TrEMBL record, chain A:
Subunit structure: Homodimer.
Highest taxon, organism lineage: Eukaryota
CDD domains xref list: MDH_glyoxysomal_mitochondrial
InterPro entries: L-lactate/malate_DH (IPR001557), Lactate/malate_DH_C (IPR022383), Lactate/malate_DH_N (IPR001236), Lactate_DH/Glyco_Ohase_4_C (IPR015955), Malate_DH_type1 (IPR010097), NAD(P)-bd_dom_sf (IPR036291)
Domain Lactate/malate dehydrogenase N-terminal: 2-144
EC number from the UniProt entry: 1.1.1.37
Binding site for substrate: R80, R86, N118, R152
The protein's name in its UniProt record: malate dehydrogenase
GO process terms (BP): carboxylic acid metabolic process; tricarboxylic acid cycle
Broad enzyme group: oxidoreductase
Catalytic center residues: H177
Gene3D superfamilies linked: Lactate dehydrogenase/glycoside hydrolase, family 4, C-terminal, NAD(P)-binding Rossmann-like Domain
TrEMBL record, chain B:
Domain Lactate/malate dehydrogenase N-terminal, chain residue ranges per copy: 2-140
Protein name, UniProt field: malate dehydrogenase
SUPFAM superfamilies listed in its UniProt record: LDH C-terminal domain-like, NAD(P)-binding Rossmann-fold domains
EC number(s) recorded for this UniProt protein: 1.1.1.37
Sequence ranges assigned to domain Lactate/malate dehydrogenase C-terminal in this UniProt record: 143-317
Entry binding sites for NAD(+): G4, A5, A6, G7, G8, I9, G10, D30, N89, I112, S113, N114, M223
Any one Pfam family match given in the protein's UniProt record, by short name: Ldh_1_C
Residues in coiled coil: none
Reaction it catalyzes: (S)-malate + NAD(+) = oxaloacetate + NADH + H(+)
Keywords noted in UniProt: NAD, Oxidoreductase, Tricarboxylic acid cycle
Record-listed substrate binding positions: R76, R82, N114, R148
Species of the source: Linnemannia schmuckeri
GO cellular-component term (any): cytoplasm
Keyword Transcription regulation in annotation: no
Length: 327, 324
């Protein structure tokens, strides 16, 4: 049995995300959990002609939803409105994530936990600290999904230079998942950055960093990115399942992780910057994180982006961790 | 073009279409929220351009379209039949059809909006008024009934693969007009009771979801899945020129005069869901009715008069109005 749980399954991201996951041949059981509407969404999805079984679980049914889960994907929480930063969501979403993490510790302590709920820079440390309290934290199994930044990078790069194929061109994005903490390493794309002016590079980097704001603004109060986030979330979840269930090797995605997932590779980085969490290219294995790839060689421009990201990330991480440890 | 792109079906449908390699431009049209949905989808790393068009921009949205998919309209609440939606959705479909006649008369039109049995005739009659109707290019999407059939059959007999087992579903797209031809599934060995149960569940699968959603809507995600599957098949045939693709779909039978002559003279039905083979022109061939069991024949006998009423209602909505 490969049970995947979506927490927040009836929400703006949760519904299309669950639709995409319903199409996977690797999932045998898809459990949808939300405070309202999950049974209706489950009935809807259960009619799709793939083999997986779909169940819907309401507010009082969290334990049953999470029991024996292989993987838990968490889009639950409130989205941004125009003018808000991801950090503004913290007050509400921190409590939701902490409660879900308690549920994971109780019902599926060995599960892979994939966090979408913002602010990711802080919610991932919240999950980790709750799991640590219960003695079940495995840094190889907890991920912040920053894939949408990679997806945006690939797409925006192809808009600037149409000879770049958006589908096959992967961009390494390091740091975190909000504003200045998003650091796309465009210098690694063959024959690309050399063709840009400084203005174009600035504009492109800024667009990737504030892609989320672009959608919040366009939706004018109606929400934030849901469909593209579902796409990115499904891409990440399915890649991880390919590695952990189908045992496919060599798969890589940029992801925000606790650096103890690969102590050897990250020891010097951790010592230098004092950061416990950082998004880097991660190679997957059966165990989750098999290997964290070292920070690639960056351009001078990218170094300034990194220098701006470090202190912001530190603050975000501390905020998340202390939400649990100070409680 | 997706008309109704910001709705419960429209949004996930548009997400799935954004992943198609045959589409170069995905235009999202809706009375509200389309620009926001377009901005969201435009960030996905496939090649197609995405544009969002609001209420006043329907012409712009439809201009030069190759294919128009229409999920627009209101969904059912518990206790409602698809026919109860007619009053509201008929007007919406009429207006969109006028837009198609004006801006993209040669487009393939794929109708999701219920009640499909009646809304497809509405599209046809509006296009006829403008001399732009090609019966090979207008389809009612009944694919969700096929999807449900494949899935429900698997739930009863898990030696049947739901993904690869296609079930022919004929008739229409509501209640008793849905006739799944389960007898044609290879190696099936259902008892009479099981066939009754399965048939009923397939016919009222939509009600099952409306009830489970308890006022929050009707099938959206599974409809998006089915709609995208059908749209992709049409694009594979009409854009990529792939031959031999077949889907059950609700069409005007003049799309294949020869193939349906006997059926039409016997039943006097202008529209009917049947297995259709696609070609570059849309409908290439409407397959003859499969061999039916005695049970399925009784289902068909119940479906035909209901369909006649639904078709007349849709047709008259346009032809009566034009007589005023």
């Amino acid at each position: 049995m490969v049970k995947v749980v979506v927490c927040g399954a009836a929400g703006g991201i949760g519904q299309p995300l669950s639709l995409l996951l319903k199409q996977s041949d690797l999932i045998t059981d898809l459990a949808l959990y939300d405070v309202v509407n999950a049974p209706g969404v489950a009935a809807d999805l259960s009619h799709i002609n793939t083999k997986s079984k779909v169940t819907g679980h309401g507010k009082d049914d969290m334990d049953a939803a999470l029991k024996d889960a292989h993987t838990v994907v968490i889009p639950a929480g409130v989205p941004r409105k125009p003018g808000m930063t991801r950090d503004d969501l913290f007050k509400i979403n921190a409590g939701i994530i902490a409660t879900l993490a308690e549920g994971v510790a109780k019902n599926c302590p060995g599960a892979f936990v994939l966090v979408i709920s913002n602010p990711v820079n802080s919610t991932v440390p919240i999950v980790a600290e709750v799991l640590k309290k219960h003695g079940v934290f495995n840094p190889k199994k907890v991920f912040g999904i920053s894939t949408l930044d990679v997806v945006r990078s690939s797409r925006f790069v192809s808009e600037v230079n149409p000879s770049v194929d958006p589908k096959t061109t992967r961009v390494t994005v390091v740091g975190g998942h909000s504003g200045v903490t998003i650091v796309p390493i465009l210098s690694k794309i063959p024959d690309f950055v050399e063709g840009l002016s400084k203005e174009q590079l600035d504009a492109l980097t800024h667009r990737i960093q504030y892609g989320g704001d672009e959608v919040v603004k366009a939706k004018d109060g109606a929400g934030s990115a849901t469909l593209s986030m579902a796409y990115a979330g499904a891409r990440f979840a399915l890649t991880l399942l390919e590695a952990t269930v189908a045992e496919k090797t060599g798969l890589i995605e940029s992801s925000y992780v606790n650096l103890d997932a690969d102590v050897e590779s990250t020891a010097s980085f951790k010592a230098k910057h004092g950061l416990d969490y950082f998004a880097l290219d991660v190679e997957f294995g059966k165990e989750g994180v098999k290997h964290i790839l070292p920070l690639p060689q960056v351009s001078a421009y990218e170094q300034t982006l990194l220098d701006a990201a470090y202190p912001e990330l530190k603050a975000n991480i501390t905020k998340g961790a202390s939400f649990v440890t100070s409680a | 073009v997706v008309c109704g792109a910001a709705g419960g079906i429209g949004q996930p449908l548009s997400l799935l279409l954004k992943q198609s390699e045959h589409i170069t431009h995905l235009a999202l049209y809706d009375v509200v929220n389309a620009p926001g949905v377009a901005a969201d989808l435009s960030h996905i790393n496939t090649r197609s351009t995405v544009t969002g068009h609001g209420k006043e921009a329907m012409d712009e949205a439809l201009q030069g379209a190759h294919t128009v998919v229409i999920p627009a309209g209101v969904p059912r609440k518990p206790g409602m039949t698809r026919d109860d939606l007619f009053k509201i959705n008929a007007g919406i479909i009429r207006d969109l059809s006028e837009g198609i006649a004006r801006n993209c008369p040669g487009a393939f039109v794929l109708v999701i909006s219920n009640p499909v049995n009646s809304t497809v005739p509405i599209v046809a009659e509006v296009l006829k008024q403008h001399g732009a109707f090609d019966p090979r290019r207008v389809f009612g999407i009944s694919t969700l009934d096929v999807v449900r059939s494949s899935r429900f059959v698997y739930e009863l007999d898990n030696s049947i693969d739901p993904k690869s087992t296609r079930v022919t579903v004929i008739g229409g797209h509501s209640g008793v007009t849905i006739v799944p031809v389960l007898s044609q599934i290879p190696k099936q060995k259902f008892t009479k009771d099981q066939l009754d149960l399965l048939t009923h569940r397939i016919q009222y699968g939509g009600d099952e979801v409306v009830k489970a959603k308890d006022g929050a809507g009707s099938a959206t995600l599974s409809m998006a899945y089915a709609g995208a599957r059908f749209t992709s098949a049409v694009l594979e045939a009409t854009v990529a020129g792939k031959a031999g693709l077949v889907e059950s779909t609700y069409v005007n039978l003049h799309a294949d005069e020869e193939g349906t002559a006997a059926f039409r003279s016997k039943t006097h039905l202008e529209y009917f869901a049947q297995d259709v083979e696609f070609g570059r022109e849309g409908v290439s061939k409407i397959r003859p009715l499969p061999e039916l069991s005695a049970y399925e024949q009784t289902l068909l006998d119940a479906a035909i008069p209901e369909l006649k009423v639904n078709i007349a209602k849709g047709t008259a909505f346009i032809t009566d109005a034009s007589k005023i």
